[in-house]
Inverse folding.
């Protein structure tokens, strides 16, 4: 399994196709919770422009072979119930059958819709990136999930998680205190809004031709398998 920094892709999206209905998706949203740093709002005339960067920028390092023909982008919230269902029940099969075989690479993007601890958890994961530990931190967050807004992702627990993955605590703590990744997290949330997402998890499957398929919720592995296999034939 390779953890490689994500690569910016400049092509414009060829198509977007909805391929499955919702199996489970969290959709609560308090806009005030997303105000990491207050910024002026500018009214935009016309729809926001969707490019490949809307899908792949402001996200995690790539999980898998950066040259894999299929990219799976997940927009998730670390407190989201169905995101945890995906992690616990589905993601492992995708990694075993498609990521480790070089067919699919994964990018995780933040869509913080549940509460302030979701944003703090995102900071924790991004700060671990500086030490090549994003996916280890991502995994330990979901492995310790116990619900929404009940304190499991508190600042003290996030610190314990960083210690458990053997992060350099001085480096990680400094990054957290400076909120180094505030802009990245906010831009990822903005990307989700541009894509008109209403909940998490939401997935985009991008093939080598730049064609995009969209899946909502914690779909069974067989749904991902069907979409991957269809896209690999193109």
């Amino acid at each position: 399994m390779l953890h490689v920094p994500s690569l910016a892709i400049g092509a414009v999206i060829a198509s977007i196709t909805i391929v499955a209905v919702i199996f489970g998706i969290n959709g609560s949203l308090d806009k005030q919770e997303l105000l990491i740093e207050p910024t002026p709002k500018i009214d935009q005339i016309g729809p926001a422009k969707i490019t490949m960067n809307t899908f792949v920028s402001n996200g995690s390092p790539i999980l898998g072979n950066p040259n894999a023909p299929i990219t799976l982008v997940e927009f998730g919230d670390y407190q989201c119930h169905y995101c945890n269902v995906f992690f616990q029940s589905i993601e492992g099969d995708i990694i075993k059958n498609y990521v480790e075989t070089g067919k699919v690479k994964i990018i995780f993007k933040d869509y913080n819709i549940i509460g302030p601890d979701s944003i703090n958890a995102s900071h924790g994961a991004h700060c671990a990136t500086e030490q090549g530990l994003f996916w280890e931190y991502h995994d330990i967050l979901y492995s310790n999930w116990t619900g929404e807004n009940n304190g499991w992702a508190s600042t003290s627990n996030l610190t314990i998680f960083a210690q458990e993955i053997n992060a350099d605590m001085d480096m990680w703590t400094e990054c957290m205190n400076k909120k180094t990744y505030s802009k990245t997290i906010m831009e990822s949330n903005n990307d989700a809004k541009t894509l008109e997402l209403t909940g998490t998890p939401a997935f985009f499957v991008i093939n080598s031709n730049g064609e995009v398929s969209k899946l909502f919720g914690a779909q069974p592995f067989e749904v991902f398998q069907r979409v991957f296999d269809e896209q690999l034939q193109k």
Notes: Strands lie at 3-4, 15-18, 62-63, 70-76, 104-110, 202-206, 211-216.
